[in-house]
Amino acid sequence: MPEPVILSVGASPVGESELTGRDLFSVALAEAFADLPDPAEIVDALYVGNQSESYEHQIMYGTLLAEWAGLRHTPAERVEGCAAAGALALRHAVRDVRSGECDVVLACGVEKMTAGGTAGATDALSAAFDRALEQRSGITAPSQYALLAKRYCHETGASEEDLARVAVKNHANATKNPRAQYQSEIDAETVLDSSYVARPLKLFDCAPVSDGAAVVVVASAEAAETLVDSEETVRASGVGAGSNNLAVAERDLTFVEGAHRAATQAYEEAGIEASEIDIAEVHDAFTVCEPLLAEAVGFAPRGTGVQCALDPGDRSDGWSDVQVSSSGGLKARGHPIGATGLYQAVEAYEQLTGRAGDRQVEDAERALLVNEGGVADAVTVAHVLEVA
Amino acid sequence: MAGRGDGSPKRVRPEELTAESPLTLPGFFAALSDGRLLGGRCDECEQAFVPPRPACYACGSREIAVEEQPREGTIVADTEVARPAPAFAADAPLTIAVIELDSGARLTGRVAADYEAVEIGTPVELTVRELTDREKEFALDHEGEWPLHVFEPA
Ligand SMILES: [Zn+2]
């Protein structure tokens, strides 16, 4: 089986942009292909993670981006899975290479969320909920996660201040990420003094509305050898994916089963244990997600996930030494929905190839990416990436 | 019988899945309009769920009985939605909760009480009402007559 590697990445800055989705993609593609031949010479297929056509009134993003990359006639398709669309696109690319059918595949993600304002984003995101009972009750994305946060705090004794510290940590990390939407540190008081969006979650517990696009170039190790030096490649050694019930009410509210299963599958494929992961980008769309996911993927004993906000040396026994969300996470790097899973891969690629600048995690050799769509684990994709 | 309301577990046949069947949303909401909240119960593992559907999410079995659900339940988690979807903006803030019915089925719904007045563990009871004119504006054509489930503190 051909071994898939990532050989190059590119991504636009995250935030409110004057550029449209296709333009943001052009920025990402130009960076990813700065030192590569034209895509037309090497790319066999293209996948695009894109959450919603309601922002730009545009579907057919596969065809559009293929055209913008000079890839007319190349098989290209949009992948939909709400905020997991990006990692689903990456998974398709990895599997196409593994199958031997393709040598080089582009995994892309794009979202122009600011096009419809906050109301437009609220409405577009609510389409990810069950229409029959959830949407019709007036629930919003923050309030779905607030239900998880309320239950998590109830069962574990975690406080709103504990959750606030996750935001503080991720904002601090983002100040070292030139692509991040937020470049300023905050303190816990800033989070705690911000207004409730859906109790117990406040404005600063929430990832922002973002524009952005990212491109990840996946190839067989053999094809990559002809294009870049081997130290510029990162192995995509494990993939896991799965769905869970669409309605949050029918899931375990304090154990993210879908993420547990996806990560376990990715670890097994890579032949590693959770404790061997050095860095992780997890789906911290809301502060409560990071502790929930830290527990689900095996970094932390149940009920201790909020220690993800602490330095590894200050955590309790049973916690791994993993650094979580070195990019600033969804919370502070930003969350352009369909591109988020690929921004996670971009961060891991830069960390594992020693290009993360001021935020470089020393000796980082293995990364876990966890990208979720719908509310929490309605769909989850996990990837393990390793130094070549 | 077309409605399959007899509770007998068996695999559903294609011709049974009409708009009168509680295994379809029109059938489910028609029963709710009559004040009956219907759920499915898996014949293999006993899992209960709302609305009824042709397969069990817990074990995958397609032997599903349709049963009327109890109206009583308990709040598992709750929140106050400061800025709800546009259709409900006039009613903000909304109290919304995950409810576990006494059958074990869980569903999300509005709670007709202030957030401060309820908490995890508060017993609630199902009520059913028609959509308001404002809510109907946001409903799709096929949803206009579907009622809304709302829980009240018991
Ligand atoms: Zn079952």
Task: Explain the layout of strands and helices.
The complex is a heterodimer of chains A (388) and B (154).
Chain A: E1 4-11, H1 21-32, H2 39-42, E2 45-49, H3 61-68, E3 76-79, H4 85-98, E4 104-112, H5 117-126, H6 141-156, H7 160-174, H8 188-193, E5 196-198, E6 201-202, E7 211-220, H9 221-225, E8 234-243, H10 257-270, E9 279-281, H11 289-296, E10 323-324, H12 329-332, H13 340-352, E11 366-373, E12 379-387
Parallel strand pairs in A: 2-3, 2-4, 9-10, 9-11
Antiparallel strand pairs in A: 1-7, 1-8, 4-7, 5-6, 8-12, 11-12
Helix pairs in contact in A: 4-13
Chain B: H1 25-33, E1 38-42, E2 48-49, E3 64-68, E4 72-81, E5 94-101, E6 106-111, E7 123-129, H2 133-138, E8 148-153
Parallel strand pairs in B: 6-8
Antiparallel strand pairs in B: 1-2, 1-3, 4-5, 4-7, 5-6, 7-8
The structure holds zinc ion.
Please describe what this structure looks like:
The complex is a heterodimer of chains A (388) and B (154). Chain A is built from 13 helices and twelve strands. By secondary structure, chain A is an alpha/beta fold. In chain A, the strands form two sheets. Chain A has a ten-stranded mixed β-sheet with strand order 3-2-4-7-1-8-12-11-9-10, sandwiched between helices. In chain A, strands 5-6 form a two-stranded antiparallel sheet. The radius of gyration of chain A is 19 Å and the shape is globular. Chain A starts with a strand and ends with a strand. Chain B has two domains: 10-68, no CATH class; 72-153, no CATH class. Chain B has helices at 25-33, 133-138, and strands spanning 38-42, 48-49, 64-68, 72-81, 94-101, 106-111, 123-129, 148-153. Chain B has a five-stranded mixed barrel with strand order 4-5-6-8-7. In chain B, strands 2-1-3 form a three-stranded antiparallel β-sheet. Chain B starts with 24 loop residues before the first helix and ends with a strand. The complex binds zinc ion (ZN). Zinc ion binds next to loops of chain B.
